[in-house]
Amino acid sequence: MDTLDTATMRAIVEAQRNEITEHHIYTKLADATRDPANREVLRRIGADELRHSRFWQEITGREVKPRVLKVWWYYLIARVMGLTFGVKLMERGEEGAQVNYARIAEVIPGAADIAADENDHEQELVAMIDEERLKYVGAMVLGLNDALVELTGALAGLTLAFGKANIIAVAGLITGISASLSMAASEYLATKSEGGELSPGKAALTTGLAYVFTVAILVAPYFVFARLYLCLGVMLFDAVFVILIFTFYVSVAQDVPFWRRFAEMAIISLGIAAISFGIGALVQRFLPIDV
User: Fold this and answer.
1) Which pLDDT score, from 0 to 100, does residue 288 have?
2) What pLDDT is stored for residue 23 in this prediction?
């Protein structure tokens, strides 16, 4: 189109490339998805993206190639972190494209319809994805939260009470594994008593594994370093890092606010650690233990 300036044409080509790239991502995910309902949803979204790409192609008069690395990147994320997380993470990236659509719509009316599809129709389709692992996020939250609160507190307290990294590491590991078994058993009984659609065994396994994973991350510094306060600092950093990663996952997969949940978990975990550190200091002062 002669009426389009260079910047607008460049934006349209970019939109065309994004659409064809996302078409390949959704198609690839559909081919790898076992659930028939989810497969159909992904194919419908992929068909929408292809239709959008062809709309832009009629304007640009050229064929563009998808971004292969982006296709594989989101495919791998979805396979590892879950279909819902991968798709919603990619859809978040599309939000920046809405500005381009708004500008293009000033000269190409059909661009407004594309933007409407991106905002409404595809979001509805994404909401239809039914992924089993998301049903057990509550069990995962239980395991992570308990491990973070209990272990950061216990390790902080033991750091002053015992004063030896190797002993603290072993004590923390034993405490953590025992607590993970207890939490898994409690989750099994709680889920079974509720009588819902969740499997008690899977819920218990999810809670237990989340707990053990967190324990391993928190205890590791005490096996690696000898200096107590370095161990304590790295352990607290690991705790915040685990909270950051997990909160980001939940915020994307379940569309919940990130910063409020992150701040809440971090304040609770670090607050308990500070209190336990103080208790450890009192124990060291008034109940000296020679280990």
Assistant:
1) 62
2) 93
pLDDT digits (tens, 9 = 90+) for 265-285: 888 888 888 887 787 777 667
Residue 58 CA: distances (Å) to CA of 20, 100, 169, 234, 282: 14, 18, 64, 56, 75
The pLDDT, as a whole number, for residue 1 is 47
Quote the tokens at residue 159.
């750091």
Enumerate residues 6+ apart whose C-beta is below 8 A from 15: 52, 56, 97, 100, 101, 104, 114
pLDDT of residue 233: 92
CATH code 1.20.1260 for 6-130? yes
Domain ranges of the chain: 6-130, 133-286
pLDDT value for 291: 53
For residue range 165-184, what is the model confidence (pLDDT) as tens digits?
Answer: 888 999 999 999 999 999 99
DSSP of 3-66: TS-HHHHHHHHHHHHHHHHHHHHHHHHHHH---HHHHHHHHHHHHHHHHHHHHHHHHH-S----
163: left (phi over 0), alpha (psi -120 to 50) or beta: left
Q: How far is Cα 116 from Cα 111, in angstroms, rounded to an integer? A: 9
Q: With CA atoms as reference, report the closest residue to 276 among 183, 161, 124, 104.
A: 161
Contact 256, 250 (CB under 8 A): yes
- CB count, 10 Å around CB of 42? 27
pLDDT value, residue 72:
95
Supply the DSSP string of 194-226, one letter for each residue.
HTSSS-HHHHHHHHHHHHHHHHHHHHHHHHH--
Q: Are 25 and 17 in contact (CB under 8 A)?
A: no
pLDDT < 50 regions, the chain: 1-2
Dist. CA 112–CA 102, nearest whole Å:
7
User: Are 56 and 117 contacting, i.e. CB atoms less than 8 angstroms apart?
Assistant: no
Residue 268: closest CA among 145, 135, 139, 97: 145
